[in-house]
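Worked example 3 (structure in, sequence out).
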């Protein structure tokens, strides 16, 4: 299942494949270790994105800002983009 950013117009990014892929949710199994990511989690049967950047670490995840380990079970990831 894929999710899109709500505040971006899909038609504006659909023709730009690299940008399009950056905004698409990817399966958590493909999450990289070397960059800040936005994570989608399920809470009470609803998907939502965490509001802070995360990094994949051995055995789990950490808050990229505080560098503290977090206890989450994300379902999807995408590139972290600073929100205005």
């Amino acid at each position: 299942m894929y999710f899109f950013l709500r505040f971006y117009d899909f038609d504006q990014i659909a023709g730009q494949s690299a940008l399009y892929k950056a905004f698409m949710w990817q399966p958590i199994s493909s999450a990289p270790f070397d960059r800040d990511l936005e994570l989608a989690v399920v809470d009470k049967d609803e998907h939502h994105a965490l509001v802070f950047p995360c990094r994949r670490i051995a055995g789990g995840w950490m808050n990229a800002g505080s560098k503290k380990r977090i206890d989450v079970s994300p379902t999807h990831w995408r590139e972290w983009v600073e929100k205005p």
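Notes: Strands lie at 26-27, 37-43, 46-49, 54-57, 60-63, 69-70, 76-79. Residues 26-79 form one domain.
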